[in-house]
Amino acid sequence: MLLGINDTGFGTVVILGLSLCVNGLFNKYYFVYVCHYIFIIWSLFRNKKIQMGNDNLLCFKWLDTIKRKWVFVCICIITFSLLTGCWDRIEIEDRGTILGLSIDPIGGEAPAGITGPYAKSDSTGYRLTAQIAIPGRIPLGPIGSSGGGATQRPVWVVSTTGKTIDDAMNKMQQQLADKIFLGQLRVITVNQKIARSVGLKDTQDFFRRNAEIRRLCWLLISDGNADEAMEAAPKLERVPTLYLVSTMEHAVELGKMPNVFLGNYWSALSAKGMDPVLPLIKVIGSARDQIETEGVAVFRGEKMVGMLDAIETGIFLEIRNMHKSGYGVALPIPGDPKHSVIFKALNRKTDIRCKFVNGHPSFNAYTVVPSKIEEKTGTKSLDKREVIDQIANEASETLTNGQMKLIRKLQGLHADPFGFGEIVRGQEPRYWKNKMKNSHDKWDDQFSKTPFQSHVKVFIQRSGMSAK
């Protein structure tokens, strides 16, 4: 069947086709898209009739000429009103961009609040220390490149106090000429004393309500004064906050730290069968210019109840089925206890199985760990398969004992950072509703006495570049 179009319709099709081609090539420009829209409206008003063969399939009855002109003018006015630009923009030089923020207890001094006498929280007050970016000094290339600001510090550290977090932020605003902007906040560091004493409920509420805060911001716990992390000047990065962000990202990539952002913390906090964990850091060195990852802080609800060191963090990630392995484990060489061999997992896979015995849950963890030999001391050769198998069996037993020891430690803290409660809630909703009463505290108490068995199997697949 042939498609016949009259002269007016042919012109309409040509205009529509050209506008569609232009929009397809340059649709990233909003103005071109608007022109395309106007062309379509104008073309439709010009169209009288479209015929197919000898039969009129579609016929439009349009408004008279005057009405069409007024409609077209109105459409243009409404459309071009959308092209007013960024009328509410704020230039970057006019923003007080905070990159990092630390929160410490106020100590014995009185907080310098500004929001009135009724500002109160569970803590007597907070000391906020902020790293504020100085426009023009943030390095965009290698250190040492030409530029007058290469030797100047790219951030300004400002400190203030307040009765609440918002009270302290308002007080900090009085010290700045530009409006505080939290859209580029990358790190929030909280003193361990606050996390252990009053918890993070009042501390993190301000950030949870603020629309500028990114959910990918790191929330860290500091072993010591948190403001030291803001004052630190590491040698590898001119911006301390960016160095701290890189440290955490690389620790995650190497399998030494869980990938826990601010949004992950809030998600775990909202879960009824899981407790959150947060990375634990410490500023070290005689010049206080080095930042070390110590492990993770374990929470029960919003209060810190314990911590896991580096090795325990690795076992925690193992049970959580996080495949990357960050740390090696040393074992005595079979037949030569004065020397050792260090093996490291290439990958890990853990399967958690839940079953009910006498109406109560119990768990079994089955872990498979392919690994490699990283180092050997002494002169005993490892070229025999029997020796490799003995090392693998010893490693399996060591990791099994490590998992059981970690589970008992967390059961003693009445904290379930693994999410076993979420497994129970998903598999047996009736048990969760009738026995646990949808209560987080009830599950933490039940977890402390829930049976758990670990089954680890290590396979040594590589011995490195040396066969012996």
From TrEMBL:
Q: List residues traversing the bilayer.
A: 70-90
One Pfam family, short name: Spore_GerAC
Q: Where is the Spore germination protein N-terminal domain?
A: 88-283
Q: Which coarse location class applies to the principal site listed for this UniProt protein?
A: membrane
Topology relative to the lipid bilayer, per the entry, is: Lipid-anchor
Localization in the cell? Membrane
Domain of life where this protein originates: Bacteria
Q: Where is the Spore germination GerAC-like C-terminal domain?
A: 294-464
Q: In the UniProt record, does the keyword Protease occur?
A: no
Q: What keywords is this UniProt entry annotated with?
A: Germination, Lipoprotein, Membrane, Palmitate, Signal, Transmembrane, Transmembrane helix
The UniProt similarity line reads: Belongs to the GerABKC lipoprotein family.
What is this protein identified as?
Answer: Ger(X)C family spore germination protein
